[in-house]
Amino acid sequence: DRILWAMANISGGPVALGEGATPPDVVVATNSDGNVGYAPPCPSTGERRQYLMTVFALDRVLDTAGITERDGTIDADALLTAVEMSTFDIAESTFYVQAP
Questions:
Q1: What global pTM score does this model have?
Q2: φ and ψ at 65, to 5 degrees?
């Protein structure tokens, strides 16, 4: 499974963002491409792929000090493990992308 985007510590209150913006105080992990931030879904030409978006509701703000690498990045798998340990509710949605 590829991780396209992993974030944590998004405020529980209303958040309005412009395109490409990240909420303040959010922790963004590396994606499966090894880059910090969003990686768009990119199926091959003519291919249709299924993607799963999962939103976790946590009972606390995550302390990421123990999973932050020396270069300041956070691995998505480490972040997701920390998230799963603090989750009290989950919402999931499946979507499909069809490449032209």
A1: 0.80
A2: -55, -40
Residue 82 makes CB contacts below 8 A (sequence gap 6+) with 8, 62, 64, 67
* pLDDT band, residue 21 (cuts 50/70/90): confident
Identify the CA nearest to 76 among candidates 15, 41, 32: 32
- Amino acid identity of residue 33, one-letter, is D
Q: Give pLDDT tens digits for 30-88.
A: 999 999 998 988 888 999 999 999 999 998 999 999 999 999 999 999 999 999 999 99
| 38 contacts: CB under 8 Å, gap ≥ 6 | 4, 5, 31
Three-state DSSP class for residue 75? coil
Q: How does DSSP assign 2-67, residue by residue?
A: --S--EE---SS-----TT---TT-EE-B-TTS-BS-----PPTT-EEEEEEEEEEESS----GGG
